[in-house]
Each structure stands twice: as structure tokens, then as C-alpha cells.
Design brief:
single chain; alpha/beta; two-stranded antiparallel sheet; 21% strand
Length: 182
């Protein structure tokens, strides 16, 4: 939080499976005018409404539709307002694979990446590509933040890919009910 208050950009990152369970917690950060990219799907419309009600500024787009324009808006907003959330394997997966947009966003906005994870005591897991989790009523939910990660801006595709893989390796242990990817 001190890093953010000092005017430095923070890019929170979560798995698609877990981000929705944490949206309400982030009402605590309304003063930073945070932004989140949400897909242009019908489900995304519902999520965008909830996010907006919780103090987030949803930008509509994803890796499969409207992504470049949404990414440009995310970069500009993150540079100015210093706080954003990115769902690293959405909107359609595959689960547990970090997409390159998060690294591009962090590079372009000179932001640190802060992973976060949701661990509910009891939850329902949906039969979806990401095993979407929904904490059961009255279940204790722990929200855990990882260490700040700063990746140097690079032009070399191989180094860029190593950064993407490194973020994936850092975040995979926090994925619940990980799908068998073999």
C-alpha cells in the first residue's frame, strides 16, 4: 500500500477462477480509481456492473475481442491513476496459463506486478474451463498478496517469454483445483 501511496503504479494480478471473490474487498481502494479489464461477453456485462458498483472502472475488452483498445485504455489509466487489476488467464483460458498482455501492460505503465490469491474455507467449484470458485455463505475467505515483481522492459521475445513463464511459475501454486495440463 505504501508503494501505491508513493505514486508508483501497481498491477494486481489474479487467476480468472478467483478474481470475482475479491472484488468486494477492493472497495478499500476506491480512492485510487482502480481499473479492470472485463470481456465484452454477456457474462462480462454482469461482472462489469458489479465491479463498477464496487468502485472499479471496468474497461470492456479481452484477448479475444476488443483487446488492443482495452489494453491502451488500461495503460493510460494505470499510468495516471496507479492501480489496476488484470485477470491473467481470462477470459477463456486455458486455466493456469498466463497470457502475455499482463507483461505488456506492466512494461508500458512501468508498474510492479502484485499477485493475489483467494483461499475460501469452503467453496463451490463450477464445471467451467477455470473451475470458477464461489465461496459458500459464511465461509472464511483469505485474500493473500504476493511479493511485488518488477520486470525490466525488454524487446527480446525470448526474454519477454521468460518473464511470462516466471510470473506463471510464481502464481501457479495459488491456483485452486488446478486442472491437469499434461
Amino acid at each position: 500500500m505504501d508503494y501505491l501511496k508513493n505514486g508508483d503504479a501497481v498491477l494486481l494480478c489474479a487467476w480468472h477462477q478467483q478474481f470475482f471473490s475479491a472484488i468486494r474487498h477492493f472497495q478499500n481502494y476506491k480512492a485510487f480509481n482502480p481499473i479492470i479489464m472485463i470481456s465484452q461477453s454477456k457474462d462480462g456485462e454482469i461482472i462489469a456492473g458489479i465491479a463498477k458498483h464496487s468502485g472499479w472502472n471496468p474497461v470492456r475488452g479481452s484477448s479475444s475481442k476488443g483487446g488492443m483498445e482495452a489494453l491502451r485504455k488500461m495503460i493510460a489509466h494505470l499510468k495516471e491513476n496507479k492501480l489496476a487489476l488484470h485477470i491473467i488467464d481470462g477470459p477463456k483460458g486455458p486455466s493456469g496459463i498466463v497470457k502475455p498482455g499482463v507483461i505488456r501492460l506492466a512494461h508500458a505503465a512501468y508498474a510492479v506486478i502484485v499477485p493475489f490469491y483467494v483461499s475460501p474455507e469452503k467453496a463451490w467449484y463450477f464445471n467451467s474451463w477455470d473451475k470458477f470458485l464461489l465461496p459458500k455463505p459464511f465461509s472464511k475467505v483469505i485474500l493473500r498478496f504476493g511479493e511485488m515483481i518488477k520486470f525490466d522492459r525488454v524487446k527480446d521475445r525470448e526474454i519477454f517469454e521468460r518473464q511470462r513463464i516466471r510470473l506463471e511459475e510464481i502464481m501457479l501454486p495459488g491456483l485452486k483445483c488446478e486442472l491437469n495440463r499434461n
